[in-house]
Amino acid sequence: MKISKNMQSALNNQIALEANASNSYLSMASWCEITGYEGGASFFYAQADEERTHMLKIVHYLNGLGVPAIIPATKLPASNFKSLESILKTALASEKSVTVAIHKMVEIAQKDKDHSTYAFLEWFVNEQVQEETKFETLIQKFELIGRDKLAINEIDKILAANAAAPADTPA
Ligand code: FEO
C-alpha cells in the first residue's frame, strides 16, 4: 500500500509535533517537581510518556508501510513557568494546535482516498477530544475551587488522580 508524499510528509511532521509535546510536558513535570507540586509532576510526567507513545504510533505506522519515519530534533521547551494554572492553559493551547494538525491530516487522507491512513487517524481524532476535555476540566477547577494555597493544593491532588487514570493510557 502506498501513501502520498503529502501524507508522508504530514505524518512525519506530526512525529515532530508529538515529540515536542512530549518534551514540553517533561519540562512542565520537572518544574512542578522542583516547585513542590507532586500531583502536577506525576500528571505531566505521565503526559510526556503519553505523547511519546503517540509519536511511536506514527513511527511504527510509517515504517510498517515501508516509508522511513524521520526522527526529529526537538525544540528547546519553555522551562520557566508562572503557575500551575498557566501551565495547564499552555498545555490546552498546545493540544488545540495538535488537534488542528490531526484534522488537516484527516483532510489529506480523505482527499487522497487513503482509507488506511484515515482509519489510523481515527484514534488520534478521538484522543484529541479526550485530551482537550481533560485540560478544560482541569482549568475549570481554578474557578470552582479557587486560587489560594489550599485550593491549589486540592487541584494538585486532582492532577495526581488524573495521572493515574487508566483511560489516559493509549492502546
Ligand atoms: Fe499527542 Fe496530546 O497530542
From TrEMBL:
Pfam families linked to this entry: Ferritin
GO molecular function terms attached to this record: ferric iron binding; ferrous iron binding; identical protein binding; oxidoreductase activity
Cross-referenced InterPro entries: Ferritin, Ferritin-like, Ferritin-like_diiron, Ferritin-like_SF, Ferritin_DPS_dom, Ferritin_prok
Keywords, sorted A to Z: Iron, Iron storage, Metal-binding, Oxidoreductase
Membrane spanning stretches: none
GO BP, sorted A to Z: intracellular iron ion homeostasis; iron ion transport
Superkingdom, natural source: Archaea
Domain Ferritin-like diiron, chain residue ranges per copy: 1-146
Name of this protein: Ferritin Dps family protein
Species of the source: Candidatus Nitrosopumilus sediminis
